[in-house]
Write a structure and sequence with these properties.
The structure holds three protein chains of three kinds.
Chain A lengths: L17 H32 L5 E2 L10 E2 L3 H8 L1 H21 L1 H11 L4 H11 L7 H12 L5 H10 L10 H29 L3 H9 L4 H26 L6 H7 L5 H4 L2 H11 L3 H30 L5
Antiparallel strand pairs in A: 1-2
Helix pairs in contact in A: 3-8, 4-8, 5-8, 8-10, 10-14, 13-14
Chain B lengths: L5 H32 L3 H5 L13 H7 L2 H32 L7 H13 L4 H10 L7 H4 L6 H13 L2 H9 L4 H12 L1 H17 L2 H6 L8 H14 L16 H32 L5
Chain C lengths: L1 H26 L4 E9 L10 H10 L1 E9 L3 H11 L6 E4 L3 H8 L14 H9 L3 H6 L10 E5 L6 E6 H6 L8 H14 L6 E2 L4 H8 L19 E3 L4 E3 L5 H15 L11 H9 L5 E5 L3 H6 L8 E3 L17 E6 L2 H24 L1 H9 L6 E3 L5 E3 L1 H5 L4 H9 L9 E2 L1 H4 L5 H12 L14 H27 L8 H10 L2 H13 L1
Parallel strand pairs in C: 1-2, 4-14, 6-9
Antiparallel strand pairs in C: 3-11, 4-11, 5-9, 5-10, 7-8, 12-13
Helix pairs in contact in C: 2-13, 2-14, 5-13, 10-19, 13-14, 19-21
Classes of the chains: A mainly alpha, B mainly alpha, C alpha/beta.
């Protein structure tokens, strides 16, 4: 998904003078100017807007703060237990999510590949990535209706078929992480599988033939031919996922959040939302957000570094 | 490729069952919502509905389609989706084309700037502060501008433009055509699959968004329909420390109303999905065409 | 002769009428445009067609336009508008909490005390109802008043304990007077309906907390009356105390955890209002704290024969029998400084005078409560108000019907609340129970807001947030029994103390002493 290296076209050894180059291609520079200015304004100005983390916010005054306050906010949240709760929750929720929802699309793609009927395969595939296009709010509403202890169909079935008393899925802290992971599975398995499926289809057929000649059964073929062939794709996807470790699906958590399940559901982003937008501590929330962002970058870089060391393949 | 062992046959049967179950899981929530939305509130309250409507009624649809806020929100969502997608496509094409020219000086650094922002972003509060600083909050521009350039989509487009054969353009350059002309008359017509895919991603983003609409907009006149949905779904539990005067706690919104809102807000995707789904997939593969 | 005089008088009268009409026409100014905010409740949605709004425009020769903001995001949106200087001419429904104090002290709001003469009707009412002291409390540390509040002649008992009266009768139970009585009643209900959880929260626990805690001498949680979530106000010593770690609160937890353990308190603490209504109408719950006007809906949707609910005065606990504290000066109007800059001082004065007329003049205040005589209501011989047929026929009851149809009685726009006049909208019982509660002094005033500097406000916000998280977490565990109120209490207190609960108390007390 993320192939953008810059080295494909060999550069001429001796470059013509810059002025000549610009004169020749000025149209291209002009073309890029407006969108690039917009890009800088909306993506980079907020990055520098993070100075608010080191400044005091005054209601009604400049949105980027009025006085320098140094590291006060950082010292404060590093001592704040709720922050650490949010931080560990973020790590736990997303690690668990990675543990389950990273391998499942790979398995799903392999299983899909085993379907003989092409039509059926196509049907399952098409339907399975539909949830990806459902908005979070719609998904959570549907979830609430299905899981409702008073009228939801799941509790009705559990009650009528198995005689289980209604379970309070949504508010009980113990169910929060399973719900988070299962809904992610529902939404993204089909979608994530597409890329693996493309990789599997791309595997050279001769490899299978020679494996069959060697007497490998279907399972062995999968193990020794298919998996190694798609390994680099898997690796790239894995690094990407690690990079997103600190960005738990914020909208979903916010919609599932309740004071009751906050022990497990509060994550960095909801923490920032609660402190910044609902409690008006803009400057403090910015500091927390910045901290999360920096750790995120550190995670991607280290994942990339490790991957380069191990497989010689990285993102950048 | 064929394996006729019993083990494999058992596996195949199991696999087919599993896939049928996957189909069921993906479709059931929508079926359930449809069933609820056409049922009476009483039937839903008493838990009689699970697969098809009980006590069939169109009442909630009448109610929701005559609700002024729902209609305003829906119109806003359509506007943000169409306007936002148009602006995004315009800006991204203009940006991606120069970036696809590997010979262009400065391209490398521009690409690095784009890529860096994928891993580190301003964050929620600074983004809000920027919108406030520019006085964009509660104007349509707060929705139309900040999200116009999505880095992933941009890179898909850059890669697609690069994959076009250089020879076509070279002929045009010799004919004395400018780069704007080349982009408009030659490159874009050749790129319809990529453009369609990206336009779809962008449109889906705008259609589904509720959070940005929620924090950047102030009034019902500007909110998207997803915010309306959120307000009737979980508005009460989110109404925070404010007065405690009870005005939000006194409202009752029934499940039937939520379900019909869901059906109506998902309608475009449900209807268009069978026709558009091939484009959705294309984007993922286009992006990796050329390494 | 007589006839001639009559004819003459008629002609004269006509002439005068014509002339005055003409002069009035000649003098008629273009209506003053005022843009206002409106806090919208999605189930009683704002309408530009409302009679009350149109009449108010006529009354004051204005053109009113509203920025309609859902009540769920109200505070955040007002903040965003003030921060970006994009607020409309006047902000309605703002309250005295620290948020607005912060904006006032930072110069984002116009000090109303510079323009007192623009509000003659308002101050007349303040004097008539003896609210001078309440208004005095609204002045901030800089000596300025930044908003014009709504006014109550005495506080309403609009919500309280609501329970199934048919079941009380069936099992020969008296209406509970104390929390201990209530426990016994809930136990009887549970015996007869083992599948039920008799006591249920409306929306979530904060509603129950704010309506029951005052009987234990405290007010805590998201809707704590002094706005801190973790401290309360002592009405005798007039100081703030760390209520979240006191024995009063421990008693409260003992009570709730006992109910929880015996299956008397619904384990689902968060209930969307339709789920809440479903539980009560289907007999899965029988006791709740909610609002009087919600009873009708509960009965209407039920299939249970003879189901009946009623609302009773606050129950007595160890700290007395009190409903949630209520202020006689609630939310109100503030004018952003941006209006002054945009429209100039003359216009601001005109706007203020117009708002005073619209909301606080006798005609204006009647309009927002009852509507227009001859259209929405007529008066009987005894001065009693009789609503029109459309209102009376509505299944929602007059209170809701009048809002939906005419915009009368909507909380953000009705700023004068005269108890006797309000009672026309409800049945007799509601008036009675209001009287009982008033006589027993069942509603305490909202504690005075401490006069804090912006720095102190910020400091409080910082300390408050982690304390609230701790408080919620422990409270939840105490009630659910995963932590024991007897054995784990000291650990809880230690943790709250380590998180600086005393600091909030100190800052508040210092502010109160100013």
């Amino acid at each position: 998904m993320l192939h953008y290296n810059n080295t494909a076209a060999p550069r001429p050894r001796v470059q013509p003078p810059l002025r000549k180059h610009v004169r020749k291609y000025w149209q291209l520079y002009v073309m890029a100017a407006i969108p690039f200015a917009a890009f800088l304004l909306f993506k980079y100005v907020p990055m520098f807007g993070n100075i608010l983390a080191f400044r005091k916010f005054r209601a009604g005054a400049s949105p980027f703060g009025v006085d320098w306050i140094g590291m006060k906010n950082f010292q404060r949240f590093l001592k704040d237990k709720s922050f650490w709760r949010a931080f560990t929750n973020t790590l736990i929720t997303s690690s668990l999510n990675l543990l389950f929802n990273f391998p499942i699309p790979v398995i799903f793609a392999l299983l899909l590949n085993e379907l003989r009927s092409l039509k059926f395969k196509k049907l399952v595939q098409t339907v399975s990535y539909m949830p990806r296009f459902v908005s979070t709010i719609v998904m959570i509403t549907m979830l609430n209706e299905i899981l409702s202890p008073t009228s939801g169909s799941l509790n009705m079935i559990l009650n009528n078929v198995f005689g289980i008393k209604p379970i309070y899925f949504v508010n009980v802290p113990a169910f929060f992480r399973p719900i988070y992971i299962l809904t992610d599975m529902w939404q993204f398995t089909g979608w994530s599988a597409i890329i693996y499926l493309a990789a599997i289809t791309g595997v050279n057929g001769e490899l299978y033939e020679s494996a069959m000649i060697d007497g490998a059964n279907r399972w062995q073929q999968t193990l020794y031919v298919t998996l190694p062939s798609i390994l680099s794709t898997v690796m790239v996807m894995f690094i990407l996922s690690v990079g997103r470790l600190l960005s738990v699906g914020f909208e979903k958590v916010l919609l599932l959040y309740s004071p009751e399940n906050s022990i497990v559901s509060d994550v960095i982003d909801t923490f920032v939302y609660r402190y910044g937008i609902t409690n008006n501590n803009y400057s403090y929330a910015t500091a927390v957000g910045l901290f999360g962002g920096v750790i995120g970058v550190a995670l991607v870089s280290s994942a990339n570094f490790v991957s380069r060391r191990l497989t010689g393949d990285g993102l950048y | 490729m064929h394996d006729r062992s019993t083990g494999y046959r058992v596996f195949s049967a199991f696999n087919i069952c599993l896939m049928l179950f996957v189909l069921f899981l993906c479709l059931y929530p929508f079926v359930y919502m449809l069933a609820i939305s056409f049922s009476s509130a009483k039937a839903v309250i008493n838990g009689w509905v699970s697969f098809y409507p009980k006590e069939f009624t169109l009442e909630t649809y009448k109610l929701i389609t005559s609700n002024a806020q729902f209609r305003i929100g829906y119109a806003n969502t359509v506007f943000y989706t169409v306007g936002g997608t148009a602006i995004a496509m315009g800006l991204m094409c203009l940006m991606a084309y120069p970036l696809s020219k590997t010979f262009l000086r400065g391209r490398g650094i521009l690409m690095k700037i784009v890529i860096f922002s994928m891993f580190f972003s301003g964050g929620m509060i600074p983004n809000l502060m920027l919108v406030i600083w520019l006085h964009l909050n509660n104007t349509v521009w707060a929705m139309l501008l900040p999200f116009a350039i999505n880095q992933f989509n941009l890179i898909i487009l850059v890669n697609f433009f690069r994959s076009l054969p250089d020879s076509i353009e070279e002929a045009a350059v010799i004919d004395g055509m400018g780069y704007f002309g080349i982009l408009w008359r030659i490159v874009l017509p050749l790129s319809t699959p990529a453009l369609a895919t990206i336009a779809l991603y962008t449109a889906v983003f705008f259609w589904n968004d509720w959070f940005y609409s929620l924090i950047y907009m102030n009034s019902n006149e500007r909110y998207s329909v997803m915010v309306y949905l959120r307000n009737i779904v979980s508005g009460q539990s989110m109404a925070g420390a404010a007065a405690g005067s009870g005005s939000s706690e006194r409202m009752t919104v029934y499940a039937t109303l939520r379900a019909s809102s869901i059906i109506l807000t998902s309608l475009p995707i449900i209807i268009l999905y069978p026709f558009l789904q091939r484009f959705f997939v294309k984007g993922l593969t286009i992006g990796s065409v050329k390494g | 002769m007589k006839r001639q005089t009559l004819a003459l008088t008629c002609i004269l009268a006509l002439l005068i009428a014509c002339m005055s009409g003409l002069t009035a026409f000649a003098q008629e100014e273009a209506p003053l445009e005022i843009r206002l905010t409106y806090s919208d409740n999605p189930t009683l949605p704002f309408s530009t067609e409302w009679l009350a709004v149109k009449e108010a425009e006529k009354l004051s020769n204005t053109k009113l336009t509203f920025e309609v903001i859902p009540n769920t995001d109200w505070t955040e949106k007002i903040r965003a508008m003030l921060n970006s200087g994009t607020a409309p001419d006047a902000l309605m429904y703002v309250n005295a909490s620290s948020t607005y104090a912060e904006f006032g002290l930072n110069g984002a709001l116009v000090p109303i005390n510079d323009y007192l003469e623009q509000w003659p009707n308002y101050f007349q009412l303040v004097e008539d109802w003896g609210l001078q002291e309440d208004i005095q409390q609204r002045y901030l540390i800089d000596g300025n008043l930044y908003y014009i509040s709504e006014l109550y002649d005495f506080p309403f008992f609009d919500g309280g304990p609501i329970m199934r009266t048919d079941l009380l009768e069936e099992y020969g139970l008296d209406v509970p007077q104390t929390f201990d009585d209530l426990y016994e009643v809930a136990k009887v209900f549970k015996e007869h309906y083992p599948e039920s959880y008799p006591i249920v929260n409306l929306v979530d626990e904060r509603v129950t907390y704010r309506m029951t805690m005052p009987s234990f001498g405290i007010s805590l949680g998201l809707n704590a009356s002094n706005g801190t979530h973790v401290t309360s106000y002592d009405y005798e010593t007039k100081t703030t105390f760390p209520a979240a770690i006191t024995e009063q609160y421990r008693d409260y937890l003992r009570y709730l955890s006992k109910c929880y353990a015996e299956g008397l308190y619904d384990p689902e603490f968060t209930n969307a209002s339709d789920v809440w209504a479903t539980k009560l109408s289907t007999g899965k719950a029988m006791i709740t704290w909610a609002y009087y006007d919600q009873i009708g809906g509960l009965v209407a949707n039920s299939t249970i024969e003879g189901i009946a609910f009623n609302m009773f005065p606050p129950l007595e606990g160890p700290g007395g029998a009190y409903h949630q504290p209520k202020s006689r000066t609630g939310n109100g109007i503030a004018i952003p400084t941006s209006t002054l800059n945009r429209r100039g001082e003359d216009d601001v004065k005109k706007i203020m005078s117009a708002l005073d007329k619209i909301f606080f003049s006798p005609e204006g205040s009647e309009l927002w409560c009852l509507g227009v005589e001859g259209v929405t209501f007529t008066r009987g011989d005894d001065g009693k108000v009789i609503f029109n047929d459309e209102i009376l026929a509505s299944p929602d009851g007059p209170y809701k019907a009048m809002q939906l149809l005419y915009g009368c009685g909507t909380a953000p726009l009705q700023l004068v609340w005269e108890n006797a006049r309000e009672m026309f909208k409800y049945d007799e019982y509601y008036g009675e129970v209001n009287k009982i509660v008033a006589d027993m002094g069942g509603i305490q005033p909202v504690p005075p807001a401490p006069k804090l500097t912006p720095d102190e406000t910020e400091e409080v916000n910082f300390i408050k947030a982690p304390l609230v998280d701790l408080f919620n977490q422990w409270t939840n565990e105490f009630i659910r029994g995963t932590k024991n109120v007897e054995t784990d209490w000291d650990a809880y207190v230690a943790e709250m103390e380590a998180t600086d609960i005393q600091l909030i108390v100190d800052i508040y007390n210092e502010g109160l002493a100013r």
